[in-house]
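Folding Query — how this chain folds
Tokens — whole-number codes for backbone shape
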Amino acid sequence: MSNQNEGLITFDLTNFTIHEVTECGRAVRTMGVGASSMEAVAGRIVNYLYDTLIDGQTGERACTLIRFFKTQTYADLDDELKSFAINLLGGSTPLPKMKCFTLLGTVGENEEWKQRGSSNGHRAIPLPCEEVIHQIPTDAKSDQAVGTGCAFSCETGSSIPAGY
């Protein structure tokens, strides 16, 4: 643990010890207390990480952008997110069981990174087939990110634009 930053304990991400990971995890596990929604918890978590993860050499924030995603089926998206996903698929209507990464929380240096609704391409990322995971520019590229043994469907023939 590095120092105190506006009352928060900060963590040097370049030297993140197991003790610090445990302390950070402990704090994150308390973020749901009193929250009214998953979005509220996600917002708390991304803001906490944004404020507490630092570069130990500069003292500056270690992350320029932090996002929190939930995996859910297309059928479970609200109408606005369904439209967003269809748009990313080039107008193709996906199968109801198709998985999507749904943005629940976001914070970052740029103004448009501070609100979910301002995201131009990440509110609901459709995953029409397993290969799409490898195109997503995040560290969540494994099957574990979408659920162990997740079954993907490529029956629609949909594809995702390059960069997603």
About this structure: The chain has two domains: 4-54, 68-146.
